[in-house]
Fold this sequence. Notes:
- By secondary structure, this protein is an alpha/beta fold.
- The chain has three domains: 1-111 and 288-401, Isopropylmalate Dehydrogenase; 118-140 and 182-282, 3-Layer(aba) Sandwich (Isopropylmalate Dehydrogenase); 142-179, no CATH class.
- It is 43% helix and 20% strand.
- It has helices at residues 17-31, 46-51, 55-67, 80-85, 95-103, 184-201, 217-231, 233-238, 248-255, 268-282, 309-316, 326-343, 346-364, 386-400, and strands spanning 4-5, 10-14, 35-36, 39-43, 69-72, 106-111, 128-132, 142-146, 150-156, 164-171, 175-179, 204-209, 243-247, 262-266, 288-293, 299-303.
- It has a ten-stranded mixed sheet, sandwiched between helices.
- The chain is globular, with a radius of gyration of 23 Å.
- Residues 272, 276 line the site of magnesium ion (MG).
- NADP nicotinamide-adenine-dinucleotide phosphate binds next to helix 11.
Amino acid sequence: MSKITVKTPIVELDGDEMTRIIWDMIKKKLILPFLDVDLKYFDLGVQKRDETDDKITTESALAIKQHGVGVKCATITPDAERVLEYHLKKAWPSPNGQIRSILDGTVFRKPIMVKNITPAVRTWKKPIILGRHAYGDIYRGVEMIVDQPGRVEMVYTPVDGPETRLLIHDFKAPGIVMGIHNLEKSIRSFARSCINYAISEGVELWFSTKDTISKKYHAFFKDVFAQEVAARKDDLDRAGIHYRYLLIDDAAAQMMKQAGDILWALTNYDGDVFSDVVAAGFGSLGMMTSVLVAPDGQFEFEAAHGTVRRHYYEHLKGNPTSTNSVASIFAWSGGIKKRGELDNTPDVTRFGDAIEQAVIGCIEAGIVTKDLVPLMDPKPAAYQTTEGFIDAVAARLQESL
Ligand code: NAP
Ligand code: MG
């Protein structure tokens, strides 16, 4: 069988621990035997980041900017313990955070659905995609403990012009205060990424805040979002996509009654909370994909889970593992499908689809890793090893082509 040629390069970001093992298997068994593709490879494994003083992370993000499509393996975000474990020069910052800030992108999480795993929320039949604005608010908050009576004010000193003062509270007794901020440019990029992704997925777009209470801060988000939606009205209409703004509490309640196929755009804190609610509602982290979408139209695909450290230590001891590779496989297939779409090469897009169908076919035939067994109906008699599952997908893929 001749290989399918991919016209433009795909940027590949390698990672750490168990997901690095899985990543290599996927590449060797599901991708390279079938595709003739120029992979621009960057090793984002923690040792390589350390060795290059983390320059490799910046280079990889710039490569995605240049080529438009990246696929990423999960990576360690080092803490003090990891610095000791891997003898690092320092606790390098999160690669995902850095890539996100270079591409100015928004992360969307999307569950992979199969017939024999029913979401905890009965009405959810199609994916609910969650888009979290990832800049500012309490994540860049400035806080103060007020331990005796006194006035706390907000003071704005423009470079040009008189200052404005606003009383936050005249404390008669101890208490606490917090100052938070956001940036118009960041909110606009967020809105544009959400619109792009809703169009690319063909799903409804919802946005929620609490603007009835926060009449300036949250209302600003609502207004900017509405302006960006208005600017793309023709594209949204053409794609048949409706935009809805709902109060956050209303949206939370309504979401429980929807069938899905909705992109739910949320501010930073709401997105933090509801991405975990939605992930838990759909079942397993092993079945949750994540895509970073830049407002300029670049895409980076990855699994939503981490490097599955506990399984890696078992693997190092020589014990068999049963780690779910589905989200990592979908990172590859998502990147391949997007590459095909951007290059206008339908055979590449079809191959991406074929990988996904092979994965779903296996799961629906009861061929799964251990984490999925408790979620399934009917329950399979046995579960696969990490490699056994990938081999089963490869066999099914081969058959389907
Ligand atoms: P994790 O990798 O998400 O795994 C936590 C637990 O969830 C696992 O021990 C396992 O549970 C279960 N799990 C997650 N993914 C699974 C899969 N594919 N198949 C089967 N079970 C799965 O989180 P972690 O082990 O706490 O974190 C490890 C490293 O990942 C950290 O250094 C963190 O910085 C990094 N991280 C990276 C990313 C990223 O690159 N996007 C995201 C999050 C975390 P059982 O042990 O019960 O089997
Ligand atoms: Mg969270």
